[in-house]
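User: Can you model how adenosine-5'-diphosphate sits in this protein?
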Amino acid sequence: MGIVVQKYGGSSLADATAVKRVAARIVESRRAGHDVVVAVSAMGDSTDDLLELAEGVSPEPPARELDMLLTAGERISMALVAMAISDLGCTARSFTGSQAGVITDSVHGKAKIIDVTPGRISSALADGHIVIVAGFQGVSQDTKEITTLGRGGTDTTAVALAAALGADFCEIYTDVDGVFTADPRIVPSARKLDRVSSEEMLELAASGAKILHLRCVEYARRYDIPIHVRSSFSELEGTWVLPASAMVDDQGEAMEQAIIAGVAHDVSEAKITVVGVPDKVGEAARIFEKLAAAQINLDMIVQNVSAAATNLTDISFTLPRTDGQTAMQALAELQAEIGFESLVYDDKVGKISLVGAGMRSHPGVSAKFFSAIASAGVNIDMISTSEIRISVVVSEADVDAAVGSVHTAFDLDAAEVEAVVYGGTGR
Ligand code: ADP
Ligand code: ASP
Ligand code: MG
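Assistant: Here's the modeled complex, given as structure tokens:
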């Protein structure tokens, strides 16, 4: 039998009992005859706890040391899972990301995996062990420093291991039964998808559906790896995230897809407005070059029409809240040079996105989307679209109502059962 690669998230490893339950599941796969490689996340919310601890010690900890600290969370899990496996009569070897051969670039806090050299994993498997790998971390090729992959990054570790080891697919075990048409924590009537194309999953993940890390979906697409997202608390079949090549039926015909895959929301972004920018060639370039030099990824960008009397315009954009202060400092340095009036920072915003490959060919989707938001009494602040997505920024307090209204307007509510959230705090 082939290699099975599994990932267990923090919500599936909340305490000692949970660790033993996960170990039993892993041993079951081993006893079914597979070679088993497992990527684990830090227990429960312990990454957030470590971040709070760091904040208590230093307001702006050096990025290298923060990565050293955060990778400790996954090391705790890997060792505990390996111990619990040994009590069940199998042998397991745990490895840090670096030991497992996860090679990254050198950007602390959001490193990209550039290669996986799984020599130690292969030898441990050949010796009959189950392999447990600490997720969310690697070692930089250039600096040799320990890096982390960004929040939720264990999903990416798992898919990268599956690709490097030639596994047929990657199993992501979490605290819900699969990918739903919306986050079941805010829409209990959300429906589980049996399958979703990696193209749509990419847009959902990029729009804040934190069920899968964005890079993990990108990686799976590039290496043609199907992902099976499922619950570690039930035996139910989950959701298959399939590359385009696999979205075909037994006859090789393209499978019929629903027009809409789902609604995602994101309350992790902030909005910055640069007020009173002189409307002349090159000013926007200066602003965005400055932000790029500070390694900040922007999301939506809107420039207002300039007022005829003043020839001044406002430029607004959204970015991760965690980068908010760095961006404000960088822009403040430009104020004298560009001569804009002021900067306004707003982190009480949220983004709602409707995703579906059918948008390409079905007119009327935007009209229905905007009227659903209006009927929830919600005001829209910014709008952006891609070929298969419409997103709006609204006030954070309005996010849940708007998501619910859009979900219902597109007939996504499940007729029968409420979605189950088995664990986790949703943090
Ligand atoms: P893990 O600890 O397993 O990595 P996460 O908390 O990172 O778990 O991700 C699982 C959570 O993702 C779910 O509990 C759910 O609240 C959230 N989520 C957001 N959007 C969706 C969606 N479309 N389908 C399923 N879960 C979603
Ligand atoms: N422990 C890390 C986090 O909380 C990585 C992960 O869970 O995937 O973001
Ligand atoms: Mg996660």
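A couple of observations from the model: The radius of gyration is 23 Å. Residues 3-175 form a domain with the Carbamate kinase fold (CATH 3.40.1160.10).
User: Helpful, thanks.
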